[in-house]
């Protein structure tokens, strides 16, 4: 049940978002990229830097740069700073944390950022391009790897796939249904000028790509990229005086866990993702239901992570996710479009930051696509190739964060306050 955050419903807003180019060869330090992304978010917000007390937080894993150093580069003195670890559930969790920090009177606004050379620097589950040696997770047998690395489970796909293979066994979910997730997200990315992969792919393209961990194919996996992203949170009162239309935070849920985390597939039912616990918290805090959600942003490190989350959060019944994602419901023009930027599968890999940024822009009505007047919020709602990706009359969005099958976070936002 809810933990009292309903008292914060609508009191805070995301007022600025920013990113660097999504590339596979940044040629830059993560410190330089972080400064650019944060500066872009500050400019996007129009916040008065000189008269604002700032705090900052980040998901700081891999080759990221500490927050304090980045803000020093921008000439901004901090009143609060903390860097955290937590994987793909970090973004929504840190937004909730930021609300609490401001509510406690520790600062006026919080900056959240993620910076990573995820292709040319520290690659998740692998070594840098051109380097040799075993993947780092394969030789680390502590923490969450205690019951996995010793058995040769050295990558996220190897670990996560165990839960979904069981899903396929129990419910008859097929690789063809999973391939629809990639197909749909590639359609959305084709309307996104900044997506790394803009080419539309078919279900057959996915099934004909090579296996990575059978039965999952290369095109079931997300893109690896170099990039930095940033989000600024402040009070709704301050937000009303800033540059952008108000994007209010209705509720968050941060890293709710199943009973077993490090050995999640040993705790039945393994086909249920951690969102089965987070959903009660976030929907209660937000004061809305499934029928109110116009757009979802479901973490898509792999095609099946999207499907498992949509089930766990109740957008369809457990076991019916294959039918849901292949029904057209998650496409632009469908009942509830998902990952309208192309998400991690096609736009960029950012540990969930880009999906929150996308939903902020959806609520503003200023998604950057191939409509000639998108900067003015004018869209044609033609979702054919290289056209529009703005959802018509989007009022409430939901982001679903994934760290692993046992852990989840969520965020619900609106433009109606």
List the helices and strands and how they pair.
Layout (H helix, E strand, L loop, with lengths): L11 E8 L10 H16 L8 E6 L7 H7 L4 E7 L5 H14 L5 E9 L38 H16 L3 H15 L13 H6 L2 E3 L2 E2 L8 E10 H4 L8 E10 L17 H12 L8 E4 L4 H10 L8 H5 L17 H4 L6 H12 L31 E9 L2 E8 L3
Parallel strand pairs: 2-3, 2-4, 9-10
Antiparallel strand pairs: 1-7, 1-8, 4-7, 5-6, 8-11, 10-11
Helix pairs in contact: 1-2, 5-9
Characterize the structure shown.
- The protein is α/β, with parallel strands linked by helices.
- The chain contains 12 helices and 11 strands.
- The protein has helices at 30-45, 67-73, 90-103, 156-171, 175-189, 203-208, 236-239, 275-286, 303-312, 321-325, 343-346, 353-364, and strands at 12-19, 54-59, 78-84, 109-117, 211-213, 216-217, 226-235, 248-257, 295-298, 396-404, 407-414.
- The strands form 2 sheets. A 9-stranded mixed beta sheet has the order 3-2-4-7-1-8-11-10-9, sandwiched between helices. A two-stranded antiparallel sheet has the order 5-6.
- α1 packs across α2 (67-73).
- The protein is globular, with a radius of gyration of 20 Å.
- The two termini are 24 Å apart.
Report on the biggest sheet: 9 strands, mixed
Helix fraction, binned, reads: 25-40%
Q: Could you say which structural class the secondary elements and strand pairing correspond to?
A: alpha/beta
As laid out across the biggest beta sheet, the strand order is 3-2-4-7-1-8-11-10-9
What is the number of helices? 12
What percentage of the residues does DSSP assign to strands (E)? 15-25%
* CATH fourth-tier homologous superfamily of the domain at 5-121 and 226-239: Thiolase/Chalcone synthase
